[in-house]
Design goal:
Layout (H helix, E strand, L loop, with lengths): L2 H27 L3 E3 L13 E8 L5 E9 L5 E6 L11 E3 L3 H7 L4 E4 L3 E3 L16 E4 L3 E2 L4 E3 L7 E5 L4 E4 L8 E6 L2 E5 L2 E2 L11 E7 L4 E7 L12 H10 L2 E6 L8 E4 L11 E3 L14 E6 L1
Parallel strand pairs: 1-2
Antiparallel strand pairs: 2-3, 3-17, 4-21, 5-8, 6-19, 6-21, 7-8, 9-10, 11-12, 11-13, 14-15, 14-18, 16-17, 16-18, 19-20
Length: about 300
């Protein structure tokens, strides 16, 4: 073996060692690990927050943005945010707010929209469904954080909640559960106890937001689907949503508010500065500009 070959081998090993050290440092300090593809269930099990994008071409083109959060994380926790009321309103009512502002105001590292909302009756006796910043609306379904319950559980709006021990649940309940520390709600179930709950005749494709729990109750998956973009990302049917959440090993999953409200916000992937906390909208919302919303489910530092 020549001296030059030995020198090249030594330099190569040194470069590999440096790369391993840099990667380890990035994984240690990064708030969110951005991946190029979906991880296996057993991959990155020691990482708290993973984010990746998936592109499917069949049965129609669609783009999905996925977050996997380790529920027993010692560094991060889930949070529910409802923006302050701009006028005097009932407890279950709030004012629509830009999702970026909600995320920044609540120190979220990443977040998705959740509860649907409905218009209030105006002074003329009508309910206007034009959504704009500052519009007063009624929150649909359970919305609660560690400080306050904003809207009680309602039958028909499937809920996700954590108890005081951090155990996650999903179900169709008509009364708020004692001991719950946070909760959000969606339109309906996709999967409950490993059984698909969607209507087979629901063939409409829309932008979607959905969350799910794996069988071991180790991870929470938060998924946003782009839609209403012909030939690029056309959205998903309810059956397609359920199938995808089953691919992620979810035994329970619910469909949150979708359409123009579907948005996923996260800190940027910055290899030079892994602690970069600049938030950005990761998906491409169908509403331009992104629709103001009423409730967000996010992840923040403890």
């Amino acid at each position: 073996m020549t001296d030059s070959f030995k020198l090249n081998e030594k330099n190569m090993n040194k470069k590999i060692s440096i790369a391993v050290v840099l990667l380890s440092a990035f994984l240690l300090h990064a708030q969110i690990i951005h991946l190029e593809k979906r991880p296996l269930v057993t991959e990155f099990s020691d990482q708290d927050i993973l984010l990746w994008k998936e592109v499917k071409s069949q049965p129609s083109p669609v783009k999905l943005y996925c977050i996997r959060f380790k529920l027993n994380s010692t560094k991060y926790q889930l949070g529910v945010a409802v923006p302050p009321k701009l006028t005097k309103l009932k407890d279950e009512e709030t004012s629509l707010t830009d999702p970026m502002k909600i995320s920044n105001d609540n120190d979220f590292i990443c977040a998705v929209n959740c509860n649907a909302f409905g218009p209030l009756t105006n002074s003329f006796g009508f309910k206007s469904r034009s959504w704009h910043e500052g519009k007063n609306v009624e929150i649909n379904g359970w919305a609660k954080n560690r400080k306050k319950e904003f809207s009680p559980a309602q039958q028909g709006y499937y809920s996700f909640w954590l108890d005081q021990h951090g155990t996650p649940y999903m179900g169709n309940i008509g009364t708020s559960k004692d001991g719950a520390v946070l909760a959000v709600a969606g339109f309906g179930a996709l999967i409950i106890d490993d059984v698909t709950k969607v209507r087979k005749d629901d063939t409409a494709k829309h932008p979607r937001t959905m969350i799910g729990i794996d069988k071991e109750k180790q991870f929470l998956y938060m998924v946003v689907v782009d839609g209403r973009q012909d030939g690029i990302s056309e959205g998903m049917t309810s059956s397609e949503q359920a199938e995808f959440m089953q691919e992620l090993n979810c035994c329970d999953a619910i469909n949150l508010d979708g359409g123009g409200s579907s948005v996923l916000i996260a800190t940027e992937n910055d290899s030079k500065n892994p602690t970069n906390s600049n938030l950005k909208i990761i998906n491409t919302p169908s509403s331009k500009p992104p629709r103001p919303i009423a409730v967000m489910l996010g992840i923040k530092k403890k």
